Amino acid sequence: MSKKLMRKLSSEFAKYVRVWKLLKKPTPEEFKTVSKVSAVGILIIGAVGFAISVAMKMMF
Asked: pLDDT, tens digit, for every residue of 7-37?
């Protein structure tokens, strides 16, 4: 491989290592909150999709 490619890969790897070091395991409370927000978002998107589906069937 060329030196330029090796330098780029090394640089990218260093970025990933830096981010990995900043990560921390979420507390149970944080995990519950993120799960609830995600579930509500999925339900809202599903409800909107269902409403659009029903509206399209009623039009045609």
From this structure: 888 999 999 999 999 999 999 999 999 999 9
